[in-house]
């Protein structure tokens, strides 16, 4: 556990970046610091590994004041990931990751083996180890940054806007990856972002800062959305608040209806008769995209290059009302695609059906009316 006790940071020019911060970061959880630019998120984060020292108050790591720890030693137990990954440009990817185990006394062979394992863990193919950072995409560099931060197996991981320099699709992928990793690793993660959506998605708890380095609210994502502490938090988390709150409601009770499917590579004439759209699936019944019946009527064999990419998918195994509704709204056919845990088409889902389920949840008091 990391505890901030009345922590203040006043820079020499008089700027108060953090003002009397009291906050306890739970062990083994993701805590997100979020807030507008200049509100003291980075300063708060960097005080944890003593890159910055507070001018008042104290920070305890597992009950011990971090001022009593030698900074280099302290940092061995605290991984650090930053926005531009911060990789060594003249070292290969594998050597970038192996640096830390080498520093802590591993043999070269053991360090490389560990690095290889970590690259796999963050979803990078082994052959990428030989490349130099410049030969990787931004998202891949971020993965290497995460692998490197994990190399010493630190119990604590600090992440400062790690995904903000990549495009939204890659960011979504990196966020999923982080959640998956965390479910295996149980690190104590402190994650800084200015993006409230990212905070809500990743955080077990979210600390909302306001300019002047003051904590406006510290709560779980659903509490933040349901009960913002004041007007500032309300306007900060406010955008699409009702819609985002759907992300916390299980869609298990939402009925999934039929959807016309057509297997790729089969004759178009064999496709189910429909006056609207069909979802094209692969051999395993996984969705590839949509074809309108008009397009279908012009082709002999269904090929996957002609499909219109669909919207988001709704996973019946663990989907929320938000993902169910989003799948319906983002589909060109107006019908969301529900898939099972293996990604196979389970049926279609309509926006109206989701809204009915929401109305039911309101009636039963599961969500406030
Ligand atoms: N070395 C410094 N000297 C003086 N003021 C500083 C210094 N570093 C940061 N600040 C100021 O402290 C305040 C908090 O900065 P900090 O970087 O912690 O904010 P932040 O919330 O992380 O912002 P951003 O989202 O823009 O990165 C800002 O007003 C900033 O200008």
From TrEMBL:
The keyword Transport applies. Gene3D superfamilies: P-loop containing nucleotide triphosphate hydrolases. The keyword Chloroplast does not apply. PROSITE patterns: ABC_TRANSPORTER_1, ABC_TRANSPORTER_2. SUPFAM superfamilies: P-loop containing nucleoside triphosphate hydrolases. Coiled coil: none annotated. Its EC number is 7.6.2.9. One of its GO terms (molecular function) is ATP binding. This is ABC-type quaternary amine transporter. Keywords: ATP-binding, Nucleotide-binding, Transport. Residues 2-237 form the ABC transporter domain. Pfam families: ABC_tran. Belongs to the ABC transporter superfamily. InterPro entries: AAA+_ATPase, ABC_transporter-like_ATP-bd, ABC_transporter-like_CS, P-loop_NTPase. It comes from the Bacteria.
């Amino acid at each position: 556990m990391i505890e901030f006790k009345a922590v203040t940071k006043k820079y020499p020019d008089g700027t108060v970046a953090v003002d009397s911060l009291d906050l306890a970061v739970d062990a083994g959880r993701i805590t997100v610091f979020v807030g507008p630019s200049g509100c003291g998120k980075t300063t708060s984060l960097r005080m944890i590994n003593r890159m910055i020292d507070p001018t008042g108050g104290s920070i305890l790591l597992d009950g011990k004041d971090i001022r009593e720890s030698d900074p280099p030693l302290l940092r061995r137990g605290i991984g650090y990931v930053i926005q531009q990954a911060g990789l060594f440009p003249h070292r290969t990817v594998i050597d970038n990751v192996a640096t830390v185990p080498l520093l802590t006394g591993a043999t070269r062979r053991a360090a490389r083996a560990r690095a290889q394992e970590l690259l796999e863990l963050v979803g990078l193919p082994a052959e990428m180890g030989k490349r130099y950072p410049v030969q990787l995409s931004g998202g891949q560099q971020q993965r290497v940054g995460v692998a490197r931060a994990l190399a010493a197996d630190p119990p604590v991981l600090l992440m400062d806007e790690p995904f903000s320099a990549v495009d939204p699709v890659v960011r979504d992928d990196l966020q999923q990856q982080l959640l998956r990793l965390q479910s295996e690793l149980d690190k104590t993660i402190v994650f800084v972002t200015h993006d409230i959506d990212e905070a809500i998605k990743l955080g077990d708890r979210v600390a909302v800062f306001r300019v002047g380095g003051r904590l406006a609210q510290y709560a779980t994502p659903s509490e933040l959305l349901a009960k913002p502490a004041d007007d500032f938090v309300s306007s900060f988390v406010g955008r699409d608040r009702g819609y985002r709150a759907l992300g916390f409601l299980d869609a298990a009770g939402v009925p999934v209806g039929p959807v016309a499917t057509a297997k790729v590579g089969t004759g178009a004439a064999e496709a189910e008769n429909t006056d609207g759209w069909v979802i094209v699936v692969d051999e395993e019944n996984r969705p590839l995209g949509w074809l309108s019946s008009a397009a279908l009527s012009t082709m002999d064999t269904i090929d996957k290059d002609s499909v219109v990419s669909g919207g988001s998918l709704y996973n019946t195994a663990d989907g929320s009302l938000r993902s169910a509704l989003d799948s319906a709204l983002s589909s060109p056919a107006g019908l969301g695609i529900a898939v099972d845990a293996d990604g196979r088409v389970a049926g279609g889902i309509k926006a109206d059906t989701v809204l009915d389920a929401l109305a039911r949840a309101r009636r039963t008091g599961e969500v406030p009316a």
